[in-house]
Amino acid sequence: MNIVFSPIGIIHTPFMEPEGTPIQTVFSKETRGAVEVFDQYRQALTDLDGFSHIILLYYFHQSRGPKLTCRPFLDNQERGLFATRAPARPNAIGLSIVELIKVENCLLTIGCPDMIDGTPLLDIKPYIGDFDVKANIRTGWYATAQNRVQTAADRRFSGS
Amino acid sequence: MNIVFSPIGIIHTPFMEPEGTPIQTVFSKETRGAVEVFDQYRQALTDLDGFSHIILLYYFHQSRGPKLTCRPFLDNQERGLFATRAPARPNAIGLSIVELIKVENCLLTIGCPDMIDGTPLLDIKPYIGDFDVKANIRTGWYATAQNRVQTAADRRFSGS
Q1: In this structure, is residue B21 part of a structural domain?
Q2: pTM for this prediction
Q3: Interface contact B95, partner A, CB < 8 A
Q4: B55 CA to chain A: closest CA distance, Å?
Q5: Is the pLDDT higher at A16 or at A107?
Q6: Among the listed ranges A92-96, B135-139, B149-153, which one has the minimum average pLDDT value?
Q7: Residue at B1 is within a domain
Q8: What's the total number of domains in chain A?
Q9: DSSP codes, B69-126
Q10: Does the pLDDT at position B158 exceed 80?
């Protein structure tokens, strides 16, 4: 069964290549990016400006994959791919929750982007606390590696 | 530009049709579901059991779309599609954060499913507070409609 998607826009960020691109949005608090939504979807952006945060789903277009395991940059051993956020996924869909700063026609200004410039956008969803904020969570290998989450750049797209 | 994905598994829930399927996972706290991951991806599930919550990305296979606006079941007026979580999206990708109760070989037991039985699974990601929990959020039209979020079933797949 093949499922065919097409980009609905392009994400523009200051990050031109995988090396130096921050891991997840928590590391790029001062950075701005832009989401250019294709004009045919303009009407679908109505009401989005009421939301402070949005979920971006996008295509990891530079993913070299898939792999079944990978070594997260935070960690020193191989982990199952689905227990990581690495790009080398069977379906290379990336997910980032970013701050929505401004909506101007088809151009969204976002805070804290963590994807490569030119990333094809697949979907935009509003971030809603009732659905998306969970409490009392356990985070497995990540919890123990968490103290190492200080570095702003990673090697997630290269090699392992 | 076409992007071709294939299911990595199937989601099983008690919900056989759109009518009666809960809106988002907050309404199905007592419900259990199962994620059957195809055997070829077994190794990618390693380490997942350390996480209490996972993000499921899936294909809204019964979506009648796309539409550029829709009337959310919570609301009484049309909203821009990207400001809603409705299935009628240009790329019909669904996102739910569910509790991970058990991992047994390729079968995950999950809590609070909100999708239809037989939904094709596209990706599994670990839910990580540092990346996925945001504070001080504004939720636009949803905030004003929030008080109406009491009903467990919706008409999100039918008509508008």
Answers
A1: yes
A2: 0.89
A3: yes
A4: 10
A5: A107
A6: B149-153
A7: no
A8: 1
A9: EE--TT-SS-EEGGGS--S--SS-EEEEEEEEEEEETTEEEEES--S-TTEEEEEEEE
A10: no
